[in-house]
Amino acid sequence: MIRHGARRGGKPILYPVREMRAALESYFQFRELGTDWRTEVLAGCTTFVTMAYIIFVNPSILGEAGMPQQAVTAATCLASAIGCFLMGALARYPIALAPGMGLNAYFTYTVCLGLGVPWQTALGAVFLSGLIFLVLIAAGIRQLILESIPRELYSAVAVGIGLFIALIGMRNAGIIQASPATMVTLGNLRDPRTLLALGGLLLICALLVRGVRAAMLIGILATAGAGAALGFFDWSPQAYSPKALGATWLAMDVRGALNLGLLEIIFVFLFVDVFDNVGTLVAVGTRAGLIGKDGRIPRVNRILASAAAASSAGAACGTSTVVSYIESAAGVVAGGRSGVTAIVCGLLFLAALVVAPLFGAVPAQATAPALIVVGALMLVHTEEIEWTKPASSIPAFLTLAAIPMTFSIANGLAFGFTAHTLLRVLAGEWRRVHWLVYLLTALFLVRFFYLGQG
């Protein structure tokens, strides 16, 4: 079937729509995957509504580092769109990407506020971590990294980040507060703003229990709207201009990030980026039936390269590390099987680039409930840890406990790697420890004894 297009010189221009459509369906393997356009579009929309909360949560967290929130909102949308387009078009997987929860908290609270690093320099570290990720993939070192890191430490990092995020959410909500006697204590639950945050938490949980996919997005907007209506905070949307992105666009300080003191920061961004993407890939790929019976992942280098490039692109836009989102599983459940799902999600993020900044800065009490729920959902990784085996459970516990207690992912990694290596050596299993893990442990020991606290 040939469809007529615009006219040129009085004659219609013919577009081979059927051939183009067939070529796209062949490229995205519609027949092999048993999918169609309607299913893929619906799946892309489903994925978007489950992860759109990041549009409001990410600026709220990065804003505390001194970054202009309207610019970060625009950067979040643009970076997410770029990541989704790369994953969909290059890797052809139904996996959506956006700035990662946990890494944005590490960016703000550990790097910028804890170490006093300017946000421009921190963006430079994110940019470099993405480039190093690409180099590792091109050099074929990917498999070496994946085989060397103990599985329980990867799971423990995910759980620790979840606890870290939940801790920040509870603090922002006013549920907990600092105490000179006990370090942390219960906040004032009679404070109207805290009650508002608790109401938002209850709303999100109720929607999740009822299977509403946009639960967190609805909860954030409803809580913010209720707070503004009750006069708890001044929520005044501003007119949006594309120029807002200019405040963070290419603002990264790569030269500053190359200083010796930031090597550990770059490593943390890289480590969590690699394993966050691999973990999401395995989980979503398994659910979608895209992983071979031999355990091999088709086009794995393209998948990881898309994520790495998206991280560097995100830093150029003005946001923290971009990662694959486990919420992509919602789109898979809706039938998504090809890269079209990710591309549709990317188009919706691109549309949000114009709409989202109009909302202005969303108050912390409105995003806090989402942080708590995201943290709770990340605890699912505890089932991947062999708790009955001390050689696995002790390093895992030290990792997941140290992250929220020291407010640092880097400290958690240091405790976990050191404990894993020492326990294996003491058990006479030193041959089972990969040489790369020995190297990382040595670096962490140097950090503990010579660099002081992180």
Helix/strand layout:
Blueprint: E1 3-8, E2 11-15, H1 17-27, H2 30-33, H3 37-51, H4 54-62, H5 69-91, E3 97-99, H6 103-112, H7 119-138, H8 142-148, H9 151-173, E4 176-179, E5 183-186, H10 192-209, H11 215-229, H12 254-257, H13 263-288, H14 300-317, E6 322-324, H15 328-333, H16 339-355, H17 364-377, H18 390-406, H19 409-426, H20 435-451
Antiparallel strand pairs: 1-2, 3-6, 4-5
Helix pairs in contact: 3-16, 4-5, 5-14, 5-16, 7-13, 7-14, 9-17, 9-18, 9-19, 10-11, 10-17, 11-17, 13-14, 18-19, 19-20
- The low-pLDDT segments are none
Distance between the termini: 65 Å
Q: From the helix content, strand content and strand pairing, which structural class follows?
A: mainly alpha
Strand-residue proportion: 5-15%
Task: Report the count of strand segments.
Answer: 6
The total domain count is 2
Mean pLDDT across every amino acid position: 81
Q: Helix-strand pattern, N to C?
A: EEHHHHHEHHHHEEHHHHHEHHHHHH
Radius of gyration: 23 Å
Largest sheet: 2 strands, antiparallel
Helix content, binned percent = 55-70%
Shape: globular
DSSP helical segment count = 20
Widest beta sheet: strand line-up: 1-2
